[in-house]
Structures are given as C-alpha cells and as structure tokens.
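Researcher: Here's my situation. A collaborator sent me these components and asked whether they could plausibly form a single complex. I don't have experimental data yet, so a predicted model of the whole assembly would be a useful starting point for our discussion.
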Amino acid sequence: MLSIRKFLRHKGLAYLLAASFLIVSILLGVSIGSVSVPILQIVKIIGAEIFHYKPDGTDPLFENIVMNIRLPRVVLAGLVGASLAIAGAAFQGLLRNPLADPYTLGVSSGASVGAVMTLFFGITIPAAGLFTLPLLSIVFAFITILFVLMFARQIDRAMRVETIILTGIIFSSFLGAVISLMIALTGDELRQIIGWLLGSVSMRGWDYVLILLPFLIIGAAILLSSSHELNAMSFGEERAFHIGVNVQRKKMLILIGGSILTGGAVAVSGTIGFVGLVIPHLTRLIWGPDHRHLLLLSMLTGSGFLILADLLARTIISPAELPIGVITALIGAPVFAVILMKRRSERRG
Amino acid sequence: MIRVQNVTGGYDNQFLIQNICFEVNKGELLGVIGPNGSGKTTLLKMLSGVHKVAAGDIFIKGRSLESFRPKELAKVIAVLSQHSEDHFSYSVKETVSLGRYAHQKGWFQALSDKDEQIVAEAMELTGISRYADEQLQHLSGGERQRVFLAQALAQEPEILLLDEPTNHLDLSFQKDLLDLLQALTKKQGLTVISIFHDLNLAGLYCNRLLLMDAGKLLKDDVPYGVLREEVISSVYETEIKKQPHPYVPAPQLVLLSEGMQGESSSGKIGAEQLTIEKSQFSLQSSFYLKTISSGVSGSGMGWHRSFVNWQTNESPIKCSAEMDDYLKAKGFKAGETVGMISAGKPEDVSYALFEGEGFSVFTVVIAEVSIEHGINTWIFINGMFSDEVYIQSIITATEAKVKALEQFQELNMKNECILIAGTQQGETLTSAARISPLGKLISQGIYECTTNAMMKSLKRINGGFC
C-alpha cells in the first residue's frame, strides 16, 4: 500500500498522469457528439491551427465542427474547470476546510448577483467594455467572501469548518433570492439568465474563452505564487505567522485570487457547483496536500473533469442537453456528504 | 537578547498582562510559571508578535519587536505551541521543510541544498528521521510535537518560545525534549523561553523562573528563589511541600493530597500491632509511617506500614533478593515494607512502650551474639516531627544503645540496623536531643530494651541453645 502511494506521489508521474487525463478528455470532448470526429482528424486540425499550415486530408465539415463548435466549448469548459478547481483548492487550504469551495462558500452566488445586476441595470463600465460583466462578478465575489468570513467569525470565533459552510449556504440562499427577485421584476427578457444561472458552457464561442483567459492567468498566478503560504496556513494562521508568513496580506491576496477566478468563471458559465470541492479533494487524496503541486494538478484534473462533465451533459439525453451544473452536482453532492461523514467519524474516533 | 519594558496588553482591551518588565539573556533557559489564567500564554503571544502590546515595549536584539517584518521575525523567533492544527495529511518532511519558509527567496521557491541539510539535521536532532515520509496524522501526539519542534528548529531561530511543550508527552519524551533544549542553549546559545505547567520540570531545567499571578510578574529569580513553599502555596492556593531533588541541585515541590492520611487511618503504634512467629517478628500498621532505616529492604527515607524482622543466618549484604522473595511469600508488599534480618530467635525480641506528654515511643530490639553478632533497633514515635528530629533520634538511640552494650563488654557488633518510624500525627515534637522529652524516652527505651535483649541472647548461649 505504501509503495503504491509512494509511486503515485512521485511528482513527475503525477503531472504526466494529470496532463494525460486532460488530453484524453479534450480529445473525447471534441470527438464525441451527434457527428463523431475521428481522433486523428482532431489532432491534424488542431495541429494545423496551432502551427499555421494547410492541413491535408481533413474534412472541411470536421474542421468547422471542431474549430467553431466543439473546441471552443471544450476549451471553455476546461478553463472554467481549471478556475474553479484551483480556487477551491486555495479556499480549502486557506480556511483549513476540506468542504470549502466557491459554491459552498457562497462566492459563486455573489458573482452571479454581480453578473445579473450588470445585465439587469444594463451597466457598462466604459473602459472595461466586454469585461464589465466579469469585473463586477469578481467584485461581488470578493465582497461576498469577506462578508461570509466576517459573519462566520461573529458566530464562532474558532471559525469551525461547519460554521463557515453554514454561513456560506445562508449567504447563497439569500443571494439566490435576490437574483430570483430581480428576474421576477424584469419579466420576460431575463428568462435566458435562468438557463445561464444553472451553469452551461454551450453556445459561448471563442469570445467567452478570451474573456475568461486573462482572469484565469492572473488568478492562477496569484494562487500559484502563494503555494508556500497556503501550506503554512494549512497548519493554522498563528503557526503560519510564526513561520514567517505575512498572514493578513497573504490571506487577502489569496481571497482576491480565488474571487478573480470564481468571478471570471461565473461570468462566462454561470454557477457550476462542486467542481471546486471534489477536484481538489480527490487530487489531495491521490497526490498529497502540498499546495506547490496540488494547485497545478487540481487545475489539470479540474479542466479534464469539467470537459467530461460537459460531454455527459450534452450526450446523455441527446439531442436535448442537461445543464452541466446538474452533472457536477450529481457527482459532487454525494462526495460532499462522504467527506462530511468521514470528518464526523474521525472526530468521534 | 529580549527586553520587556512595562508591557501591558491582552485581548480586546482586557489587559490580562499589566506592567511587566524583565530581560532575557542569550543562552538562557527561562521558565514561565503561574496558575491558569495568570497571563502566561498572553505574555508568550506578545513576545512572539501574535498579540500587539497595548503599552510598553518589547525589544528583540535591541530592536523594537514591531519593526520586524514577519519573515525577519521568523528567522529570529520560532514558536512551539501546545496544539497544532493539521487538517491535511502532510508528510513529516513536508511539515518540517515549511520551517525554511522565511529563509527562501523569490516567487517559486524550492528547497536549496542548504535548506535540505538543515531540515535533515532538525529531523535527526528530534529523532524523527525515520518517519520522514509518514503522514503527520498517523503519528502519536508526542511524535507530532517533535515534528513541530523540528519545524521550529529548521527556522534556525535564536530564540525559541514554547507553550507547555511537554503537555501531551509521556515521561521519556518530556525528558528527551527538555534535555535537547538544555543542550541547545548550552552548545548553540539558543535562548529558550518556555511556559511550564509542571513546576518540578521547570525547577529541574530552567536557569531562571518568572512567576506570574493575575497578569503581574511576581518573581523573577533562580528556581530556588521562586519555588518556595510559601510563595507557591499562596499563588497556587494549595498546600505544597518542597524537597530537594535526590540527584541534582534543584528544588522539587510536592502536593499534599487530602484524604491520603485521613483521620480514619490514624492510630497509635504499640505492642498490639507486634506479632511474633517462628521465623520472624513483624509489626503491621493500618496506615503509613514515615521512616528512615538502614534495613535490607525499604531502607533510606520513605513511607511504610509493614515492618519485618526475618530470622536467617545469611549476611544481610547478600540477601536483598532473598528478602524480597521471603516478604512476598509471607504476603507483604515489598513497596511498603521495611525488612531486616537477624540470626536471633524471634521470641528473644524485647519491646516496650513509653508514654510521654501527648506522645509515646515504642521500642523494639533484637540482639544476637553467637553467630552473626547483630542488633536491630526499631523506634516507633507516635507524634509529629520533622526530618531533623529523625536525625537526632538516631544519635540519641545510638548513644543509649552503646551505653547498654558497654555493660556486656560486647561492642563488636557486626550488623547493626536501625529504624525510626513516625506516625506524623498528634503532638508536634521539636527535638529528640537527649535532654528533650522525646530524647529522654528514646534513651530510656533503647537502654532498657537493648539490655533486656542482650540478656536474653546471652542466656540462650549459656543455656546451651544455639
């Protein structure tokens, strides 16, 4: 058992496995659909696109499906999965809480409120243009997490895991009600928002990929550069301080990073739950809790996971589509329950 | 190294610490003691920079504590606290490596060779190298504490702060940890400030102790100056007795438990408790007596309630193990029995009770002058008295015994054992010198019983018995 663990924890191998999982997911995601695209064709088409040469022996129909329909969708799903997974991993480390993720903390709901308000009031920040929606989502996400943490501290100074989650759920419900209220008040034209809220990466195209990408890069850079601090804070803020971490500043930085990622992801795909919970948890189980690797590995597995979830969502009741959030919740909620039960029994034992 | 000047502070405007001043020198092992809620932990948290001081200043190496950035501070001060959170299953080595955080530079720091070496040394020093790849959560509390100590040492600090470091550790770990800290202060000039719950450990290991009470610094002195019965008893509000450590010059305090020697277990020692059998005579008390003796077992100072004189022709030096077997076979508990041996017949024992004013002395003597030439003397004193009186009793008894033996020109006794046992109840006796009331009774008792015992022994030879 120990040797299997050791073998799995070999870091080079870990990255190889996680990257392979992602690549396989991408290929499956692009290949499978109402029209099947052979893997070889996909490789050729993508290769040609990347290296700018005229592909030979590829079908223009496939080219169109891959480049304009499937690939943007798969890439977007991958980026959203990566964003949510790394944000979840960071929140879990920071709050020493295996149940924390953007969804359970209420951050996703906060981001949604920001997005819906932008649409509701028709807000456009002149300088931001297309980025108004994600920017406001991020601001709301950040404000929400600050409120949740402040509120949780008021209730319970020790900030127990369950208290934080409960507070997050209270905030989620409240913010959900605010969204419903806004939708009810506007009547028909925001009906489409409901579909968006359930979480989906369909029919978004390359634009949305471009919207999310800068936020993913900035957010991931912030979190990846804080991996040492996350390790230290896993042992409690006081110990982190003793080790030499500037706790208040780093905590803010990590919360901002997590909010940027969550806000960006919500802005392009709505609220997709449990990715940020399940992925870091499983990644930690397999490869250990060291954030120097956990964050990056979670990004890889998270994007692979969401691509597969999206594949399921659009094929399982084909030709109709399920919202992707349904799939992630179907997988995520039971995992959430198992983690909770395990924690309980550990505490008792 | 550390200078604390008029420091006041605490949580949320509740000033748990008031106007404290002290200094700590390099290489000192300073203990902080005091009852619960006296502000020890708050003081430590202010020293480590976790809590801000409300008034006053703390200087570390001549620099104000507040001017240190967290990373700078972590290179000077490391902290080992009572509890450590560990929610994720980090390996031991990962945990210890985190101690190097403050020494690493740049964004994506990796452990340098030097870091690796220091981490390995810290794990070696704390004896956890063999767990390096184990998960922290699979270790016991004591092992985990050592991992966090290794983490603190990996910081290469000049000052180490500890909050009851031995709290969850078993006895040998406690000793190992404190021995290690002591060695580090001596060899590497590490300065250690540690909160102690156990006053005896503090007295044993620290150069100096700070005694805190209700947020104030009550004493700042060497252990002998702080661990005094009257000081500790009043601060901790409990009855305590001081004793020297048996092997090293350090004060040790002992608690007095109520009910251990309650009223119900009191009584008077006299002939009623003495039993004479074929191979032995013994005295069984229903409660413990404080004894000093030079017997075969249970010798030295201690508390005993069974007293046995076994008739055997063995030399007393050889038969310690046999004595234990004998006592066991006869149903005595070795830990609470004083055992002596004599070649004399048990029925030749001579004993008598002597009454004084509010106290009494019961003396028991057996003499034997044919084979081993031995004389054993037991003195039971029904009274309360101090260690000095035990010593005086031995002197007085010996003088009386010598006087008695002179009558028989029989001074070449080979084996002489003595037992002084006190009930430590009733009248307080201040002296056992020859002219004191207690001394007079001892003199009289020993003289009479020794004379009597010698006569019986001689009669047995002259009468043809052997």
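Model: Some features of this prediction you could bring to your collaborator: Chain B touches chain A through 37 residues (CB under 8 Å). The first helix of chain B runs from residue 40 to 47.
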